[in-house]
Write a structure and sequence with these properties.
- This is S-methylmethionine:proton symporter (AAT family).
- It is a single chain.
- The chain has one domain: Amino acid/polyamine transporter I, CATH 1.20.1740.10.
- Helix content is 73%, strand content 0%.
- It has 18 helices and no strands.
- It has helices at residues 3-14, 17-20, 23-30, 32-59, 66-73, 76-105, 114-130, 133-162, 191-204, 209-212, 220-249, 256-259, 261-268, 274-306, 324-343, 348-379, 396-412, 420-448.
Length: 449
């Protein structure tokens, strides 16, 4: 992969429903400025995380990425946990995304059952990931740039409406930027802002896919830093720009703020067919995110199998060198997630999505922790100047990542809708960790005998 392909992969994973649908809820609870602040903190955090991952990936590009780094620089228990959590994140998202695609397709084809669309798009994702990497690169490049351009156009239209260049037919509209503070700077206190930071982290998740693809990168010391810089620049401008537009143009009383803020603003601007346009963009967005997620998840299974942490049979590659069994396991997990969304939406499906949100923060903590330990170990045998890519302000950067991630986890406790992430995520993490440690000790004892 070159820097363009890695950029497309990263954007494919990041730009999803987290920016198209979620911000409206937090604008209502945390206020517009509180939400912007939360996403700015998330942007700073993802920049620091990518610096940590950049140093690790350039020095030692591995397909297993943070799984390998955690094994090497923390311990095998943490590596095992982070690999499974990351796999679960994208596998759960696959089921959720396919279900949402099926629902969105019914707008145009109401007589077709949802399961047909879930099956068709799932099969397409499987075929793209099963064949040569060129297929994946081209499909992900196309879909990633479509949704990136769509987000750019939305921000542009919104800014023109704010500047009164385009009309605004919103019955709740107010002058200038007063919508941002009409309920006060912090309408519901600090708690919702902490919850917003966690959601912002989830919205930015996917940027770390560059690390997963490092093992397949051409000239990693050049392509990885370049792809990281481009990804961060695009995300920060578009994400914060989109939230600024929503917070400035939409009143908290507007139902469209929580149901479909993009469609609402386009309708207020008098854009014909706004709902159909956004429906198509959302379908492309979900397909792209699922495609990128399956790529990352299948590589994580391969990494676990390649290290012997699960059965080595899952490390099998097909005739073009792709992890076919890891792909099959990921698709099967996505199918189970999809079924839980249909038949157990208020129980199993809710738990799975809570685990997914928790996993993102856990992965970022492990990346920073790995880099913190890596630098210490590296300097015992090498000079700092030998590193081709270095984290700025070490050790402040990785420590800051860990602290902000821990703070965002604390913020979950202030939001009743997200508290289940802690209730589920912490026990799962502990169980996976001690399982791996016990297996490792048992193996060591058998080797001694």
């Amino acid at each position: 992969m070159g820097s363009r392909q890695m950029l497309a992969l990263s954007l494919g994973g990041v730009i999803g429903t987290g920016i198209f649908m979620s911000p409206g809820y937090f604008i209502q609870s945390a206020g517009a400025l509180g939400t912007i602040f939360g996403y700015i903190v998330g942007a700073i955090l993802v920049c620091l995380v990518m610096q940590c991952l950049g140093e690790l990936s350039v020095d030692n590009p591995k397909t297993g990425s943070f799984h390998d780094y955690a094994n090497a620089y923390i311990n095998k228990g943490v590596g095992f946990v982070v690999a499974w959590l990351y796999w679960a994140t994208w596998t759960i998202a696959l089921g959720s995304n396919l279900l949402t695609i099926g629902i969105l397709m019914r707008r145009w084809f109401p007589s077709f059952p949802i399961w047909i669309w879930c099956f068709c798009f799932g099969l397409l994702i499987f075929i793209v990931n099963l064949n040569q990497l060129t297929w994946f690169n081209k499909s992900e490049a196309l879909t990633s740039w479509i949704k990136t351009v769509a987000l750019m156009i939305f921000v542009g239209i919104g800014l023109l409406m704010i500047a009164k260049v385009l009309p605004n037919h919103d019955p709740y509209q107010v002058k200038g930027f007063s919508q941002l503070t009409n309920r006060g700077w912090l309408p519901n206190g600090i708690g919702p802002i902490l919850a917003t930071i966690l959601t912002a982290n989830f919205a930015y998740s996917g940027a770390e896919m560059i690390g997963v693809a490092a093992g397949e990168a051409k000239n990693p010391d050049k392509t990885i830093p370049k792809a990281m810089r481009q990804t961060l620049a695009i995300l920060i401008v578009l994400f914060i720009g989109a939230i600024f537009v929503m917070g400035t143009l939409l009143s908290p009383q507007d139902q469209g703020l929580t149901t479909s803020p993009f469609v609402t603003i386009l309708n207020h601007a008098g854009i014909p067919g706004a709902a159909d346009i956004m429906n198509a963009i959302l379908i492309i967005t979900l397909f792209s995110a699922s495609n990128a997620g399956v790529y990352a998840a299948s590589r994580m299974i391969w990494s676990l199998a390649d290290k012997g942490e699960i059965t080595r049979k899952l490390a099998k590659l097909n005739h073009v060198g792709l992890p076919v069994y890891g792909l099959c396991l990921t698709m099967a997990g996505g199918a189970l997630s999809l079924l839980s969304g249909i038949y157990a939406a208020q129980t199993i499906y809710l738990i799975l999505n809570a685990l997914s949100a928790f996993a993102v923060v856990a992965v970022w903590i492990v990346i920073a922790w790995s880099e913190l330990n890596f630098r210490r170990q590296y300097l015992q045998k090498h000079d700092l100047s030998d590193l081709k890519y270095r984290v700025s302000w070490y050790p402040f950067t990785p420590i800051t990542v860990i602290l902000i991630c821990l703070l965002s986890i604390v913020g979950i406790g202030f939001d009743p809708n997200q508290q289940i992430a802690l209730i589920v995520g912490i026990p799962v993490t502990i169980c996976l960790y001690f399982y791996r440690i016990l297996v490792e000790r048992k193996k060591e004892k058998s080797d001694e005998l």
